[in-house]
Amino acid sequence: xxxxxxxxxxxxxxxxxxxxxxxxxxxxxxxxxxxxxxxxxxxxxxxxxxxxxxxxxxxxxxxxxxxxxxxxxxxxxxxxxxxxxxxxxxxxxxxxxxxxxxxxxxxxxxxxxxxxxxxxxxxxxxxxxxxxxxxxxxxxxxxxxxxxxxxxxxxxxxxxxxxxxxxxxxxxxxxxxxxxxxxxxxx
Length: 187
Hints:
- By secondary structure, the chain is an alpha+beta fold.
- The protein has 3 helices and 7 strands, in the order αβββββαββα.
- It has helices at 2-47, 124-127, 160-183, and strands at 53-56, 63-68, 74-84, 89-97, 103-110, 140-142, 152-154.
- It has a 5-stranded antiparallel beta sheet with strand order 1-2-3-4-5.
- It is extended and about 80 Å long.
């Protein structure tokens, strides 16, 4: 008899807890999606300061936006791309010029790197290295020396894995965008 009461009580508690979680999820999911969309839009215009509107390029297999200026001329692309960092996933917004031969800027959308070390990828001294960078043939990471070529980025001391992860994500995102461009998907 006692076992039956315990099972019944646990079942009722489980139903109430599951129902509560479901209600909270249904309430929060649209707000989370709206906040993520707002953050993506903000990042699109941060990597293209002259951008006034954008169009999503469909059927690319990842998030790519074509950005237009005040005169409605294309100024380039904003690419959302992610990969693995030291502690977890790093998600970036990569701004590229129209010809894909110059990076306008990068923004970190998500990261969970080590505070004080890997999180330096969020700081301007690291991110600003990507402004005007030529990603041809690929971006290279240099360690312990100043970059001497237009495709080089200096790694963060003590956070080489995070620095390397960002370079890898940027290179892969650009390579994938070039493949999409070669197929003519953005036309």
